[in-house]
Amino acid sequence: MTRVVFLLVPGVHLLDLAGPAQVFSSAADLVNGYALSYVGDADTVLSHQGVPLGASRELPSLSVDDLVFVPGWRSPKIVGTGHLSERALAWLRAHYDGGGTVASVCAGADALGRAGLLEGRRCTTHHELQEELARRYPAAHVVRDVLFVEDNRVVTSAGIASGIDLALHLVAVRHGPAVAAAIARTMVIYARRNGDDQQDSVLMRHRSHINETVHRIQDVIESRLAERLSLSELAIHAGCSERTVTRLFGRATGMTPLKYQQALRVERAEHLIGQGATVEMAARNVGFEDARMLRRLRSR
């Protein structure tokens, strides 16, 4: 059981909290194994929108598989806002030191900074707070104008709706793109994943259509990413002819099913390489027979 614990700060923005919480709640429905909880320095934390939120003052002991989220709060300026006790900040730091992952939305990055988790790391926050965050933590490298940044188990996002993107990314890393895409469709949003050099993903670019037949084909490709899938097999799943698969898929996505699978494989391989895998290991993991094809596709 993976615990997702939200550390609530006075003035918390509801969407900063509710977006990621909905993603992991939906993940629990699809793959089980997730439990959500909410902690803070008081039994009741008042959101910026005026909704009182219940929280536990007991800070739980966590495992390396658990996640801690710090949603953002109302903060035209970071200084003087987002009060958290030293006890809460020490708990946040201890979870990271024990091998766990910590994440923030919007101004929540400042809480990670106060816990000493931004030093020497790439991070981001809401565009209105980026310059102040950089001044407050000069040893951090604040990346401007991206949705989120992941650096060695410290994940920070730009704010508000980007917390959903961050949560979908973490689900995709743990369970694969098909599960993340299914959650995004359940939430009636685009599946979205951001790397260091691009703001949208293959899922984002090619899942924005409304053709359910093509969605079913994409579901098969994403859930069996590393397998060889023939056009005839995809046609069986789609309930139509191979010619119709090619025509509908091209019209909805602008590419063939094979090109789509290759693009997903390269994107997944890029993530694995960014996490320390060799090109050879990444190629095998995503279904390439050897690293030569992956190198050719990456060079394009």
From TrEMBL:
It comes from Lentzea albidocapillata. This is Transcriptional regulator GlxA family, contains an amidase domain and an AraC-type DNA-binding HTH domain. It holds the Pfam family HTH_18. Keywords: DNA-binding, Transcription, Transcription regulation. PROSITE patterns: HTH_ARAC_FAMILY_2 (PS01124). InterPro entries: Class_I_gatase-like (IPR029062), DJ-1/PfpI (IPR002818), Homeodomain-like_sf (IPR009057), HTH_AraC (IPR018060), INH-QAR (IPR052158). Gene3D superfamilies: 3.40.50.880, Homeodomain-like. GO terms for molecular function: DNA-binding transcription factor activity; sequence-specific DNA binding. PANTHER family: ARAC-FAMILY TRANSCRIPTIONAL REGULATOR (PTHR43130), HTH-TYPE TRANSCRIPTIONAL REGULATOR RV1931C (PTHR43130:SF3). Residues 215-300 form the HTH araC/xylS-type domain.
